[in-house]
Structures are given as structure tokens and as C-alpha cells.
Amino acid sequence: METDLFLIRHGETEWNRKLRYQGQTDIDLNETGFNQARLLSESLENQKITRIYTSDLKRAANTASIIAKPHDLKLNKEKKLREISFGEWEGMNYEEITKEYPKLFKKWRNDPVSVSPPEGETFSEFQERVIYIINRIKDLHTGERVAIVSHGGTIRVYLAHILSMPLIENKKLSIHNTSLSHIKIYDNRAVIKTLNSMCHLKDSIH
User: Fold this and answer.
1) 78 is annotated as an active-site residue
2) Catalytic hit among 83, 90, 121, 200
3) Which pLDDT belongs to residue 30?
4) Is 19 exposed, middle or buried (0-12, 13-18, 19+ CB in 10 A)?
5) What is the pLDDT of residue 187?
6) Could you report how far apart the first and last alpha carbons of the chain are, in Å?
7) With contact defined as beta carbons under 8 Å apart, do 124 and 56 qualify?
8) pLDDT at residue 110, as a whole number
């Protein structure tokens, strides 16, 4: 039996635009982000999506709400679909973190799998919760077409798992705002059919 998972990143926020670490801080979409979500929703109108799951953070949930409307589907919010927690680094940019936490940031950059920001998560902890919740969604809805709206990091670490990539290499996967990655599962064998598709954004792709 075939199951389809559509992994979708939320639309743009002001912190995305300003290159600030968002993590689990509840930042909403900006005007561009809402427009991106509408364009994606239009491109998915004819897809027979049967369920929509979303991170409970506003930027994901509001993206999911726009996608869900043409399909008349309710949102299933899951905290475990959140972005990685960057702890005390949330709201800061690269320059600010390197200035305030020079030694720890260097250590984290070299080994984010086992080193965490202050009060944050390691990538190992992050991937473990993401694999758990997406596999649970997959098992609950075998044979269905399920949209999962979450975050760039969430999608990257799950794709790294499917591809059997070393977790530290997950940043080599580019996941754009409102991009769509389609995974088809054949009797527990996952195949990536589409990666980081941005066709719906047309001339707005940077």
C-alpha cells in the first residue's frame, strides 16, 4: 500500500529575512510568507490531500491553515514537529552569537549532533523526536496523502534519516520557505519523489 507524505516548510517570517535564529520562538509569517502560502495552496488545490499535520508554532500553523482551506480539512497540531530549540540563541544572528558565545558556538558548529546551545537541543535529540512523530503520522494514515507543515530543520533531519546520511551533513539539504518535498512510501520503503520544489513561487525564487 502506498502512502504519500508532503513535507512543507512554513512561509517567510521577518526573522528569516533578517537571518535570526528562530528555533521555537513563536514568530508569525510576514506579508511575503502569507503570499507564499497562498501560492502553494493554489498549486495543491487539485491534490487529494486527506490529512494535514502541522507544528503548533504560528508560522507553520498559519501556513497549514491556508493550505487546508480548499480541502476543508482541520489542522492536527503536533508540538513534536517544531523546529530545533536554539535556547538562549533564539532571536540572535550569526554575528551576535559569535561575539557573545565564541567558544561554545565554535564547538557547536563543529559538532551540533552532540553539542547544544544553552538551554537548547542537540541535533541528535531533535532528530529523534522528529523521526518519532513523522513515523507515527505515517503509521496512523497508511494509504493516505498527508501534508506535514513544519520547519526547515525538521524536514532536513527527517530527509537525512531516510537517506541514511550522517546527521551532521543535514545542512547540505536546502529547504526553502513553502518548498514541498514529496515522499512516497511503498510498504515501509521510502522514496523521495520531489525535493525542495518551489515551482509555485515562480519569479519570486531567490
Assistant:
1) no
2) 83
3) 98
4) exposed
5) 86
6) 38
7) no
8) 95
* Contact yes or no for 79/52 (Cβ under 8 A): no
**Which cell numbers hold the place of 150?**
513544519
* Active-site residue flag, 10: yes
Grid coordinates representing 123 are 541535533
From residue 139, alpha-carbon distances to 2, 136, 147 in Å are 12, 5, 14
pLDDT value, residue 158: 98
- What one-letter code names the amino acid at 95? E
Could you tell me which residues come within 8 angstroms of residue 25 by beta carbon, excluding any fewer than 6 positions away? 15, 90, 91
Give the active site residue among 10, 151, 161, 200.
Answer: 10
Confidence at residue 204, expressed as pLDDT on a 0 to 100 scale: 57
8 A C-beta contact, residue 204 and residue 37: no
What CATH number has the domain spanning 2-204? Answer: 3.40.50.1240
pLDDT averaged over 10-residue windows placed end to end, the chain, 206 residues: 96 98 98 98 95 98 98 97 98 98 97 97 98 97 97 98 97 97 94 96 65
Tell me, letter by letter, the H, E, C secondary structure of the chain: CEEEEEEEECCCEHHHHCCECCCCCCCCECHHHHHHHHHHHHHCCCCCCCEEEEECCHHHHHHHHHHHHHHCCCEEEEHHHCCCCCHHHCCCEHHHHHHHCHHHHHHHHHCCCCCCCCCCCCHHHHHHHHHHHHHHHHHHCCCCEEEEEECHHHHHHHHHHHCCCCHHHHHHCCCCCCCEEEEEEECCEEEEEEEEECHHHHHHCC
